[in-house]
UniProtKB/TrEMBL annotation:
Coiled coil: none
Species of provenance: Thermofilum adornatum
Matches recorded under CDD domains: HisRS-like_core, HisRS_anticodon
Compartment(s) where it occurs, according to its Swiss-Prot or TrEMBL record: Cytoplasm
Gene Ontology CC annotation, any one: cytoplasm
EC number: 6.1.1.21
PROSITE patterns, per the entry: AA_TRNA_LIGASE_II (PS50862)
Lineage start: Archaea, Thermoproteota, Thermoprotei, Thermofilales, Thermofilaceae
Gene Ontology molecular function, alphabetical: ATP binding; histidine-tRNA ligase activity
Protein name: Histidine--tRNA ligase
Amino acid sequence: MGGMLLQSPRGTRDWLPEEAYAKRLVSEKIRKVFESYGYGEIITPAFEYLELLKAKAGEEVVNQIYYFKDKAGRELGLRFEMTTPIARIVASKPDLAKPIRFYYIQPVWRYEEPQRGRLREFWQAGIELFGVAGPEGDAEVVAVTYDALTESGVQEFEISVNDRRVVEDILLSNSVAQERLADALRILDKLDKLGESYIIDEFEKIGVAREKSSQMLIKLKESRLDIELSTPEGKQGLDHLSRVVDLLKSVYGVNVKVDYLIVRGLGYYTGFVFEVKPKTSSDVGSIAGGGRYDDLVSTLGGPKLPATGMAIGVDRLLEVLKLQGKPTITYNEVDVYIIPLAKKQETVAKAVEIAKKLRREGLKVIVEGTDRSLTKALEYASKKGSRFVIIIGEKELSSGTLTLRDMKEWVEHKLQEEKALEMIINSRT
């Protein structure tokens, strides 16, 4: 076999125990916040019908779907985000009590160029809120995001908010044809990555003069909530955005920045959108984002149902925490390492008996199972981060004692079994 087979596929990564533990700690903090707001966990299949995934994704994202045919010839694809699969569930179950609050912590897949903070397989933690049409729903989603990121330990992040209806108004007022709105939004979404020259060049390809494009970008760079708009939809969007901003500040105590250049890349967004970026690690990109998608459930065959949601990029979040020196984790794969000497049946049986008692107390315990020397076994216990080592030989067996070595304090005790176990259990408090 070639060396390539020993590597994970491009754009993926392996999670070794310490890394997996850090991810689990952060995910559990996020989960706790989600559940504190009344959201219930949902799990969907890793793959869906390709037609479903393509429904409202947008051209660029469709090209990133991992798709395949099964043995029966059905066209399937790995989910590239969680909103569409969850909207499918809601569309198929009209009797669910409204509003519906779901959360998830799941992996997703996109075939795009791997780079820092962007893998082909990555984890998302997010929420979806169905059945709340007003700004209260969007404010709640942003507040949950703020609390989840704060609880996870992120320092100094900025939340930027917008409403796509405002952007569409400005685009239409600057010579973008109605039928090219989707293209224009897709182009704008690349401003951060590719710069203004690219945007102006691309707008020229869809019929917008370069001067108009420059004027449009100037207006989109404003951050006021009293800008002049032309269409009823744009004015509705601005009013909705203003109310969300006010609710976040006055009710939740969350300050946000208005940024009319935030549009989000997915095609199903219909109004309010937002993104979160760390102030100290800008090259990582956004660590969370979301918005309103009022037409998605009905597009999939369900009832007309307003919806809003968000997703946190767990991999990027961990990268930011690492750059900030967090989380500070004391990771050990095992709490107690038990070494039965001579590997006689009696000493092994006693080791297993003690291991069972300690495991019932919630401790992680390994019983040495090889014939290596005591020195080698102790080296292994140290590498595994074991706080305690219990040594059981014939002397210990006959006297009802245990040799207990504290690997942190570098002291060794010979104690009665009950006393030794009590010392180990009490060391956690």
